[in-house]
Specification:
- The chain has 218 residues and is α/β, with parallel strands linked by helices.
- The chain is built from ten helices and seven strands.
- The protein has two domains: 144 residues, Rossmann fold (3-Layer(aba) Sandwich); 46 residues, no CATH class.
- Strand 5 and strand 6 form a beta hairpin.
- Helix 5 runs parallel beside helix 6.
- Bound molecules: adenosine monophosphate (AMP).
- The site of adenosine monophosphate has 18 residues, from helix 3 and helix 4.
């Protein structure tokens, strides 16, 4: 896979909340050598650290709304200045609006968009049952991926992984993020950008395998 890591361009992992972007991002990052940049993780870190940015973002996140573009673009621009980003990165959960995508196209080269498709009716069950191991960052699910009994006591649930907030996150996805799908498809007609769709309903390994097949020709 060394041919992949020598590419300087970036990959976008796109999909609704709960599609498995974070889980697949860890694997894609290992395969390609591109660091994972998750705006959701960066925002949660800022909230934990209690920075001004974190305090401002928290109100939006708790309500399942998108954080304003200006905050997100500032975060991404800073992150891309770090040396590990010079060979291209894997964007996870970014861009989420057309304004973010337009801004991104002026600061980084994107060669592939991987769209993970999961129907709405599966999303709520996926997200509400999601749990995380804070020590390793591993993601489990009470029904689909139960954690080993020894780590059960330390599992946590994200504050925004409740049904009410999920419905609002899904609404934000349909209103503000989904239109990016057409935007990237149109861009791919006039550039070398590759847009691929993957069925996100299989097991973690099955979805990873479909993505890997696409990465081999990346
Ligand atoms: P995630 O972990 O990607 O599901 O993101 C959690 C929350 O962080 C989202 O519901 C938004 O409130 C916020 N967020 C993360 N990434 C973005 C983004 N690119 N644009 C706007 N808000 C974001």
């Amino acid at each position: 896979m060394s041919a992949i890591s020598s590419q300087a361009s970036s990959i976008i992992l796109f999909g609704p909340p709960g599609a498995g972007k974070g889980t697949q991002a860890v694997r894609i990052s290992q395969t390609t050598g591109k660091p994972q940049i998750s705006t959701g993780d960066m925002l949660r870190e800022a909230v934990r650290a209690g920075t001004d940015l974190g305090n401002e973002a928290k109100g939006y996140m708790d309500r399942g709304l998108l954080v304003p573009d200006s905050i997100i673009i500032g975060l991404i621009s800073e992150r891309l200045k770090r040396s590990d980003a010079s060979g291209g990165v894997l964007f996870d959960g970014f861009p989420r609006t057309i304004a973010q995508a337009e801004e991104l196209s002026s600061i980084a080269e994107v060669s592939m968009v991987i769209m993970i498709q999961v129907p709405d009716e599966d999303i709520v069950e996926r997200i509400v049952g999601r749990r995380m191991d804070p020590e390793t960052g591993d993601i489990y699910h009470i029904k689909f991926r139960p954690a080993p009994s020894e780590i059960l006591p330390r599992l946590i649930q994200r504050k925004d992984d409740n049904e009410e907030t999920v419905r609002s996150r899904l609404n934000a996805y349909h209103q503000q993020t989904k239109p990016l799908s057409d935007w990237y498809h149109k861009l791919s007609e006039k550039t070398n950008l590759r847009v691929i769709s993957v069925d996100g309903r299989g097991s973690i390994d099955e979805v990873a395998e479909s993505i890997n097949l696409e990465l081999e020709v990346f």
